[in-house]
Design brief:
The complex is a heterodimer. In chain A, about 5% of the residues lie in helices and about 55% in strands. By secondary structure, chain A is mostly beta strands. Chain A is globular and about 40 Å long. In chain B, strands 2, 4, 5, 9, 10 and 11 form a six-stranded mixed beta sheet that branches. Chain B has strands at about 5, 10-15, 20-25, 30-35, 45-50, 55-60, 60-65, 70-75, 85-90, 100, 105-110. In chain B, a hairpin with a 2-residue loop joins strand 6 (about 55-60) and strand 7 (about 60-65). The chains are: A mainly beta, B mainly beta. The interface of A and B includes residues 42, 90 and 109 of A.
Chain lengths: ~120, ~110
């Protein structure tokens, strides 16, 4: 029933490891996003995909690689994890901008990544 | 460039009204949104206002928009402890078809 679901909810890993976070939406949206929320709760967009195509790629280290196998899924793979990658990562989805209107974005509940 | 500004903290007593303010820069924003983030949870859309409106009321929530000053506010009447959360203002960049740009969030603390 969950509209935007992310797994895992918590992820604790050592520096240097590679990890993935998965996101799935069952709302029929065609645009998906990854946001990073830092310890001060500031939200920064990282990536946006529309119909499996990358449309936003903010200044993010290339250790971060998004992959969208279909428009209902957007995964985030992170290589060589660093301490500064510790944050909460949110997935979101929306209709494509021309259809989005009042509905804005629907967010997942977040993945808290802790790098030790 | 696009920038959405909010004060970071607001503390009120239970039963009082809370007013959270936001300024934005993109005058072509068609919709402006308020999102609520409770501890440990994702952001939930609380309300929105269309740019040709000055005010929108929804139960205890009142959104005021001053388009000339690019100022948006969210008033919560009879604030309850359950309203304690972070409130994010967001504008749609470049009109209705743009991406959402979020403010840094205002942490509302409600004291009993």
């Amino acid at each position: 029933d969950t509209a935007v679901s992310q797994t895992p909810k918590y992820l604790v890993t050592q520096m240097g490891n590679d990890k993935s976070i998965k996101c799935e939406q069952n709302l029929g949206h065609d645009t998906m996003y990854w946001y990073k929320q830092d310890s001060k709760k500031f939200l920064k967009i990282m990536f946006s995909y529309n119909n499996k195509e990358l449309i936003i790629n903010e200044t993010v280290p290339n250790r971060f690689s998004p992959k969208s196998p279909d428009k209902a899924h957007l995964n985030l793979h992170i290589n060589s994890l660093e301490l500064g990658d510790s944050a909460v990562y949110f997935c979101a989805s929306s209709q494509s901008p021309s259809k989005r209107g009042v509905y804005g974005y629907t967010f997942g509940s977040g993945t808290r990544l802790t790098v030790v | 460039g696009e920038d959405v500004e909010q004060s970071l903290f607001l503390s009120v007593r239970e039963g009082d009204s809370s007013v959270i303010n936001c300024t934005y820069t993109d005058s072509s924003s068609t919709y402006l949104y308020w999102y609520k983030q409770e501890p440990g949870a994702g952001l939930q859309l609380l309300t929105y206002i269309f740019s040709n409106m000055d005010m929108k009321q929804d139960q205890r929530l009142t959104v005021l928009l001053n388009k000339k000053d690019k100022h948006l506010s969210l008033r919560i009447a009879d604030t309850q402890t359950g309203d304690s959360a972070i409130y994010f203002c967001a504008e749609s960049q470049g009109g209705s078809q743009g991406n959402l740009i979020f403010g840094k969030g205002t942490k509302l603390s409600v004291k009993p």
